[in-house]
Each structure stands twice: as C-alpha cells, then as structure tokens.
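Help!! Second protein's tokens look totally different from the first
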Amino acid sequence: MSGLNVKKLSAIFNTALFFALIAVMAVSTIISKKADFSEEENRYLAEAPKLSASSWFSGGYSEGLSEYSREHFVLRNGWISLRTKLERLLGHDEISGVYFSDGRLFEVAEPIDYDKVDRSVAAINSLGKTLGGKLGVMIVPTSAQIYSDRLPSYTPDQEQRRLINYVYSGLGEGIQAIDVYDVLYRERENYIYYRTDHHWTAYGAYIAYSEYMRRLGYNPVTLDKIDIEHADHSFLGSYHSKVLTDEVEPDTVDFYSSGGAEVTSVKITSADGSTAEHEGVYFREYLAKKDKYLSFLGPNAPLVEIDSNAGGGSVLIIKDSYANCFAPLLAKHFSKVVLADMRYMMKLSDYVDPSSFDRVLVLYNASNFASDGNLVKLEADFGEKTPEIRE
C-alpha cells in the first residue's frame, strides 16, 4: 500500500472517529438522565422547550433547544473545568465573567442603572416617612470594590463607592445612612469576604454589625466573648461554580455563638404561607451540600423570625442574603429579629407591619441593590412618588 493511500485512510479514520465521538456524546446527552439542578453550578438548569407554532416560527424553540442541549451536555462539568484550565494556560484572567486575581475570584458586575436605583431610593423614602426616624439603610460593598486595586481599572465594580454615596445622599429626612465602607476597607487584609463566593464572611458581617450597633448607641459584643466555630473548610461558592477551578483555596464557614443572649426559636414563612420551626440560626445540614452559605438561616424565604432571650426590642431587616449571617448577631441585643425578603413577596404588609418594630434596617449588597429592583414593591404599602433623577 502506498504512502499516499495510508495517509488517505488515516485521514478517513480520524474523521470517522471524530464524528463517531460527536455522535456518541450526542446520543449520551439525549438518553442520559437529566438533572433539574446543578450542584456544582448551584443553579437550576434550562428546561426542555415546548414546541408550538409561535415558538417554531419565532426561533424561540431552536434557541431553547440549543440552551437545553448545552446545559445538559454529558460530562458538562468536566468540560467547564477543562475550558477553565485551557484559558488559564493561555494567560486569561477573566473566564465566564469571573476574574482570577491574587488567590481570589471576583465577578464582573453590570453597569449601574441609576434610573432603577432612583426608584428603589424613592420607595425607601416612602417607607421612611411612615417610620418616624426608625429606618436605617446599609449598602454593603462587595469584594470586587474593596479589592478593586486587584482588578483591571475598567471593571464597573469600582463604581460601588459612587453608588453608595449616591444612595445615601438621596435618603429622606430622618433616615439613617449606615456607611460600613470604611470599616470594611480597614479590615481588607482579614477574612471579611469569601474567596470563591459573592457573600461576606461571618467576620465581615461582624464588622458591619459592630458599626450598626454603635450607631444605634449600643455596645457591640466583643469578639473575645463570642465562641467562633470553624464549621467547615471546604466551601466552594457561587464564583467557583462558574469556572470549576482548583486554583483557589476553598473557603471556611464560621459560626458565631454565645456572647450574651441566646436564640430561643427560628420560624420560616414560605411563599405559600406555610411555616416551619428550626432549632437555632445555623442550618448545619447545608454544610454537607454545595451551597454551604445556606447554613446561615437556610434557603431564602419571604420571612424569617428569630426570637431570643435578649430581654426586649425588635428590629426588622428588609434584605438580600447578605443579612443571613448578619441578623443572628442582632439577636444578642433584640428579642425579635425579623428578616423580610422582597424578592419573594408582592407586598410587605402581607407578612409584617414595619411600624410595629423599634428599628427597621434595609440591608443589601451594592451589586444587588443596583440590579434587584424589588424594593419598589414598598410603594404598594407606603405611597407612590415619581423620583427625580439627580445628576
């Protein structure tokens, strides 16, 4: 057999092998059992699209089918990890919207929509008018802002300082701005944010809690009076889920307990109105799962009520998930701490009356505050106001 024929046969064989592998992967994807939720990526995967005349002619069906096939592709996690390794070998620091820098992962934020911010601030001001000076607002910078010097200068996260000042300057009379930017920045060399996740750590929350209590005229519980339990050392969070890298050290989940009053009960109200009791603020069962941050008060719910033997006082926190490891610290001073998540309710008054509390705090991280938009639901209870857009 001539060398030319051998080369042709080799080329034909390699081509056939390539297409055979593609076919095997495609068939495996079709017949494999489909998961609704990706533990590694910590999110629900795309559902199979429904075929209809409108979806077919609009192109929606083909787009949905493409997304469904991509998200349920066999060995998908392995491909994500392999892609990350290859891109890192090519010297890329940004992969799938996640930055690698100095042993940490950071997520790229979308540019800030200040029209949306204005509507949220207007809704907060409407609430503030009914509370007679009891309302405070805490907008927490994310790790991408506190460590912005470790990121490219063009990243929009560096706008968070401007955003926080913008929000505070727009608050109505009697609403207290709880600015924790500087106290967190001073602690930036300590473990205040997770390396692989978008949340702050228990210590970061403790720093903000201390500032909040001082602003209210209380003495915060000092660290030497708190029992710190290193509950888990294998947390790989939301940023890691996008890239599945082994470059970054897993995070540690800490629980803060004792230090004064103790929690006596925790009640969770779900979106369907059902309630469930839990013993303590730490849901240890989630330490065995991918999203270990859920060990702080469990999955997000419309309402969470924490009772303690602090001896009096109540505080309502209108919040995102940053409040989940912050709120238990307040139970050392207030006998009732209630968390309300506007993402899971249409009206706050369907669940709770904010005027019945001694204090009310709006607590969001800056990235969520800029993008969420659910605070405008407060207008349904506390009036409507068309915000002026400030230059």
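Here's the second one for comparison:
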Amino acid sequence: MPIDTHTKILATIGPSSASKQMIEKLVKAGADAFRFNFSHGTHEEHAERLALVRELSKKYQRDLTVVADLQGPKLRIGTFKTAKVILKKGQKFVLDMVDEDGDETRVCLPHKEIFEVLKVGNRLLLNDGKIELEVLKNKNYKAETVVKIGGELSAHKGVNLPNVKLPINAITEKDKKDLKFALEQGVDWVCLSFVQGIDDLHMARKLIGDKAWIIAKLEKPSAIDELDAIVKEADGIMVARGDLGVECPIQTVPGLQKRIVKACRKYGRPVIVATQMLESMIVNPTPTRAEVSDVATAVFDGADTVMLSAETAAGSYPAEAVTMMHHIISEVESDSSYYSRVQYDKDLSDCDDMADAITYAASEMIDILPNMAAVVTYSASGFTTLSMARERPSRPIIAITLTEEVSRRLGIVWGVKAYVNKKVFKNFTEIEKTARETVKAAKLGKKGEYIVATAGYPIGVQGMTNMIYTIQL
C-alpha cells in the first residue's frame, strides 16, 4: 500500500475497473474513494461493484468512500437520417420539436423548456461546444439559427446554453429512481449534476435528508453567480470542468477553479477538482507534462480530492493512472513550499462559532509547538473535522467518530484519517487514552511527542466542540 497523502484520489468505476481484481489494484495504487456514474451502467452492475468496494474496505481496514453521481437533466438533440451531417459556417439550421429524423437543415430538440426561454442572440453549443449556433428567431417551439462554428454532428449530441437559466429540475425522474437505489445501497455522498442555483440543493436535501452528504457539481454560470450560497448549503463541491469549460469561455476555467476552491476553503467544505486530469492515460501508459502540471496545480491550490473519470472507468491503464496521480500528489506534498501555499489565510472574522475558533487555535498550536505528531478531532457529525481540515495543518488529522457512515464520508476530506469508536466516554482520562491508542494505531508519532485534541464538553453532546488540549504520547 502506498504512503497516505493529504490530498485524496477519487476513481471512477466503469467497464475497465469493474472486477474485484482491478478495484483491488486501484486501492493498492492509492485510490481513497470510488465514483459510480449513473449516466452509465445498470443498478445491478452498480450493486455488484459497490459490494466489491465494501468487501475490500473490510479486507484492508480502510473506510473507502462511495460517491453516487446522478446524471441530471442531460439536454440532447434527436437523430438524423444519416450517420452524421456537416454544418457549415453561415448556413441556417433549425431546431424544432418535430419527432422526425433530421438532416443538414434541421433536427429535433425534444426539450420544450429550452424553447420557452430562448431569445434572439442566444448561443447554443452542440457536441461539447464544438458547434456553435446563434438564435435568429424562436416561435412556436421552432428556433431558426445561424451556424457560427460548423463541423460534424451526429445523433443524440449534447446541447449547452451558456448564461441561460433553464426552468428545469436538477433532479429528473431517472435521477429519483437512481437516488432511491443509491441510498438503499448506503452510498456516502451524492453528486448533484447541473446545479443552477440554491433551490436545486434545497430540493435534493428534502429527498436525501441525512442519508448521505451532497456534492454540488458546478458546471453552469448561474451556479457561479450564487457561489457562496451554494457552497454554504452543500456538504461538498465538485469543480466539474467538462461542462464548465463548455458553458463558460474555456480560458476562464482556471480562474474559476481557483475561485471555487477558495470559497470552499472559506466555508470549510471539501472540494473535488475533476475532468480530464490525466486524459491522455485513457490510451497511453504515461500522461503529458501539461496534465502532470494540472494535477499539481490543483494540489498546490489546496483541493481536498482530485478525480479520475474515463481514465479508470474506460481507459486501458486504470491502475497506472491512479499510481501516477498518487506520485504527483506525493511529490507536491513533499515540496518545501507546499504547506505555506495551502494553509488557510484566515480572516479571524471567519471564526463565527466556537468550533471554528477551536480548530483555528489547534492548527496554530501545531505550527508553534515542537514535537507535534498529529491533531485529533472528536466529532459525532464530522463537521468539526471539516473545520479542522480547512486549516490544512502540517500534521495528519485523526478523526474519531461514532459511526461508520461519518467515517466513510470523511474519506474525501484533505488530510483526514477517520476511525470509528462507539464508546461513550465518561471522563477526560478515557478521551486521552483513546486519542493515544488511535494515533498509535495510525502509526503516527513517537513516545514523548504530543498530539493536539479537540473535543466537546459535556462529553457526547453533538455540536459542542469547545475544548482544546495537548496529550503526550
């Protein structure tokens, strides 16, 4: 098993990584969590693969995190009479709701919600932004457009409308069925795709409750407009650079990534950087230099987790991709400037509750006092641990929590190694003893070194983190 890193790796399971042997290879290579993409695969396939993850979790005594990624409202065109058509710059092209095969002049767009908000001058992007149309007229569910950027177009390609907020729910009927199944399977996180605003998260929260934590995937400009509100409402955030790079000018994505990561740090929410991180490793055994720099940048920015998509789901080198990502993370985290870059530049006014103040103080103690081995957080809900992780302390974070559910959820949080302890502590002596034993079990620290612990009094009361103290090993 590789040495643990602070930054976590989320690997997507698909046809290339569906077997127990391959999932085990990914775990050994350094994967901390697994993404199940509900845009593909059947419930039966997902159930079999999830059971394998849980089996390996027990085998290696690691709380491997499971993330269910809902498809969301995918907007696609209809079919054509031929395998493909060629659209030329300057030609007219019609989108309508006539359920007939299209040609070089028209195609069906079976989404009335789009026609209800389209205005003259709006841009439509087809096939991941490769084709651009501009609306000339929209009436009676028929939009006349002019081709601004032409190219090859085939059936069922995706449609994006930059800067247009659509009157559609982020959770479709398919998503509701997938969500019910995922929650029954006991997934740890649920990814909500194409979040347009805070209302989408409120809807998801009503359906999910406390059965899983929610990740808002940011891929729409309207979500960026409500960034702070969405980050505060969600439990975690994904920088979904695929559609984000289609919906927004592609050159703005690096800046948006940094802005989103900064907002997540401010509010203590874990953030995942995703899409095309080692894209060339789908077909090649090694990445490009630019891809290595991209992963390194995300790590230097302070991302909690970096994600592999097709690289592990459908690529030829899934284990090699995880290994490479682990090597990149390890190299960055060993850089002498790493901690100074990622530690949170806190405005003390951000400490708006006792837990924030306690975790800030604990992080400062780690940097000031010599011989510090780790920081221990006692957290029933996990939120005190999130607050501690925000500070990016220079020592590992050991989270002691009451349930496996919370322990697994913390698996994609920066620097956290979670342990379940269901014991009800009667006094501080028991707390100290458990902290020592847990740190030793994690193979951290030597005799005579210190750990900083945060906890609450009265003992066992959720949301009562109000104490900080040091313990000698």
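Reply: Different proteins will give different token patterns, so don't panic. The first helix runs from residue 20 to 29.
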